[in-house]
Write a structure and sequence with these properties.
The complex is a heterodimer of chains A (about 220) and B (about 220). Chain A is mainly alpha-helical and about 220 residues long. Chain A has one domain. Chain A has eight helices and no strands. Chain A is globular, with a radius of gyration of 18 Å. Chain B is mostly helical. Chain B has one domain. Chain B has seven helices and no strands. In chain B, helix 2 runs antiparallel to helix 3 and helix 3 packs parallel to helix 5. The longest helix of chain B is centred in the C-terminal third of the chain and has 33 residues. Chain B is globular, with a radius of gyration of 19 Å. The mean pLDDT of chain B is about 85. Classes of the chains: A mainly alpha (about 220), B mainly alpha (about 220). At the A-B interface, helix 7 and helix 8 of A face helix 4 and helix 5 of B.
Amino acid sequence: MKEITELIRKDFLLELRQRYAINGILLYVFSTIFVVQLCFGRVIDDKTWVALFWIILLFAAFNAVSKSFIQENSSRRLYYYMIASPVSVILSKMVYNAFLMVLLGSLSLLLYTVFMGFPAFDMRLFIPAFLLGSIGIAAALTMVSAIASRSGNNAALMAILGFPVVLPLLLILVKASQTALNGPVDDLKILSMLASVLLIDTVVLILAVILFPYLWRD
Amino acid sequence: MIKGMWWKIAGLVLILYSIIAGLTIDVPALPVIHQTIRNLFYHVSMWFAMFVMLGTSLVFSIKYLSGFKLKDDLMASGAVYTGIFFGTLGLLTGMIWAKFTWGDFWTNDPQLNGAAVSMMAYLAYAILRGSIDEAAMRARISAVYNIFAFMLLVIFLGVLPRLADSSLHPGKGGNSSTMEGLDPTMRLVFYPAALGWILVAFWLLQIHKRKRALIQGVNLNK
C-alpha cells in the first residue's frame, strides 16, 4: 500500500515539475472545443452535444494516458522493476490516470459548457456515469499503453489497440447520457446503466492486475 | 495414415452434405426471408467456427502465459488468424443475406457493429504481432492482448446485442432465439454444417501451425 502511494506521489511530482503535459492536453481540449464551436455555431441539438462531448473526451484521454508508460525509458523501467511489485506499478498508474482523467474531464465539461451550453440532463445519471466512465476509460487505456509501450511504433499502435478496448465503455456512456436527456429517469434504469459501466470497469481492473506482471518482466 | 485423417474427412463430408442438403431440402415458407433462410447453414456456421477458433486461441494464450512454450503461441496466433478468416467470411455471407432480406449490405444493427469492432480488435492483434521482432516478447505481449480481445468479443457479441433496444437478429434485443424457433428438418442440416466447418477450421489451424513452426524453427514435440 505504501509502495502504491509513493509511486502515485512520484507521478504527481513529475507532472507538477514538467507541467507541459497537462497544459498541453488542456490546450488541445480547448482548441478542439473551439473548433467545434466554429464549425457548428453555438446552437446544436442535444444528441450532437452528447456525441461531440464524448468524442472530445475520448481523444483527450488518448493523449493524456498514452504517455504514462511510454515516457518511462528502459533503464528507469528496470529500476522500478527492482524496487516495486508489478501490481503496485499498474495500480498506481491507474489511480494517477483516473485522477488525471476526472480532472481533465471536469475541465473539458466546464469549457464545453461555456462554449456550447449545457443540456438539461438528469444529473443523477449523468454525473455518476461521467465519473465512472472517465475512470474506466483511464484504466483501460493505461493497460493498452502498457502493451503499446513494449512494442516498436507507439503512437499509431496505441490508437489501433486502444480503440476497440474503450469502445464498449464509450457506447454505454453515450447511451447513458442520451437516456439522461429524456427528462427524469427512473431509479432502476439508472442503477442498471451504472452497474454495466461499473461491471466493465471491474473486469478491466481485474484483467489488468492479473496480466500486467507478464508485460512488466523482460 | 487413415488414423490421423478421419476427422478431416468427416469435416469435408459434413460440409459437402450441408451444401447439397442445404440447397435441396424443403424449408419453411416464411415472409420476408423466403428461400434466403438457406443461408443460415452457411452464415451462422461461419460464426460458430470463428467462436471456436477464438476460444481455442484464448485457451492457448493462457497456456502460453503459464508455461512459456513457443508452440502454444503458434497455436494461439494461428487460431486467431483462422478465426479472422472465418469472421470475414461470416461478415461477407451476412452482408449478402442482409442485402436480400433487409435491402442493404450494412444496417445499423448492434450485432453487425459488434462483429465489426471485434474483427477490428483481432486485426489490431495481428498488427501488434507484426510490430514486435523478438519471438518470446511477441508471444507474451500478444497473449495478454488476446485475452483482452476475447473479453471484447464476449461483450460485443454476447452482452451488448442482448441489452440493445432493437435488433434484426434473432435472440437479440428481445427477439426470440434462433435455436428455439428452428425447424426440425433445418436442424438436421444446420448442426452437421456447423460441426463440419469447425472440423475444417481445426484442419486449417493445424496446417498454419505446422507451416509457422517450420519457418520459425520451433520444435512442436518439445
